C-alpha cells in the first residue's frame, strides 16, 4: 500500500516535470524580429509604403499565429505611432523633409506560446535620411491654403531668401482619390513669379490627407522642395458677413442680428466675434465677445450714445481642428449717422 502510493506520487511528479519542461520549451521559443524591412515611395508626396517579411525561423511554423508591431516616428506629432497588424505591409504619411524612422517587432500567440502574446526582444529598424536635394535657401516659406467659404481652395507661399532669378516654381498635389500627383491648375503670379495656386473647380475630399509639394528649377539648379500635408476641413475661412441689422426694442433696447453667409458652411458650427464700439459724450469704449448666437441685445441705450458693431466668424473647434477667421464685416451703427457732434447738454 505504502509502496503503491510512493509509486503513484513518483509518476505524478514525473508527469508534472515533463509537462513543465514542455511548457518551458514552448515559452522559451525565441521570437525573432521580422526581416527585409523596406520603405517604398510610390510618388505620393510622403504617403509611403512599409513592407517586411516574417522572421526566417518562423516561416514554417503555421501553428504559430504571427502579429507585427510597427512603430514609426510621426514627425507631425513628434512622437512614435504604434500599430499592430497581421499584414506585412502598412502605409503611412511621412514628412519627406525629415528622416523616416521605422521599427517592426514580431509578436507570437496561440498554442506556440500557450496563449500568451510574446514579443520579440529586438526589432528590425530602418532609418531613411531625408534626401537633401535642391539649393540651400530656395525652399518656399509660409505655405498656407484657404478653403474659401467651403467653395474653392487657394494656396499661397513666399519665396525662399536665396531664390535665384528666373526660378520656376511648381506645385503638385495628391490625395487617396487620385492615381498620381497632379500639378496646380492655375498659378497666381505676383511680381512676375508664381506665388500661389487657385484650385477653383478642383475637388478635395475632406477628412483625408492632402499632400502638396512645391519644388521647381532655376538656372543654378533645382529648388529645395517643400512638403505639406493637411486636411481641407481645417482650412475653412467663412465668407465675410454682409447682412447685419439693428433694431430698437421696448425700454430702449438695442438689438443687433446678422445672417450667416450663404453656402455649404454649416451654420451650427459657426462661432462669432462681435466688436462693439460705443461712443459717449465722456469717451469711447471698445469691447469684443465671442458667441454662438447671431443676435446680441444691449439692455438699454441712451440717446447720447452711438453704438457700432461689426462681426466675423470661424468654425468652432467642436466641428474642426482649426479654422481661419473671416474678414470683419462692415460696421453697422445706431444712430446710423452722426448728424451733429455728440456732446452733453
Ligand atoms: C498554460 O497557461 C495556463 C493558463 O495560464 C496555465 O494554467 C497552464 O499551466 C499553462 N501551461 C503550461 C504548460 O505552461
Ligand atoms: C480663383 O479663380 C476663380 C475663377 O477663375 C476666380 O473667380 C477667383 O476670384 C480666383 N480667386 C483668387 C483668390 O484668385
Ligand atoms: C517636382 O515634384 C514632382 C512630383 O513629385 C515631380 O514630378 C517633378 O519632377 C519635380 N520637379 C522638379 C523640378 O524637381
Ligand atoms: C479680406 O480682406 C483682405 C484685406 O483687406 C482682402 O485682401 C481679402 O480679399 C479679403 N478676403 C475676403 C474673403 O473678402
TrEMBL record:
| InterPro entries documented for this protein | FN3_sf (IPR036116), Ig-like_fold (IPR013783), TypeI_recpt_CBD (IPR015321)
Using the record's annotation, list all stretches that form the Type I cytokine receptor cytokine-binding domain: 143-234
Q: What keywords are assigned to this protein?
A: Glycoprotein, Membrane, Receptor, Signal, Transmembrane, Transmembrane helix
Do you know which Pfam families this protein is assigned to?
Answer: IL6Ra-bind
| Molecular function terms, GO-annotated | cytokine receptor activity
Localization (cell) = Membrane
CC per GO annotation:
external side of plasma membrane
Annotated signal sequence range: 1-23
Q: What is this protein called?
A: Interleukin-13 receptor subunit alpha-2
Please tell me the species this chain comes from.
Scomber scombrus
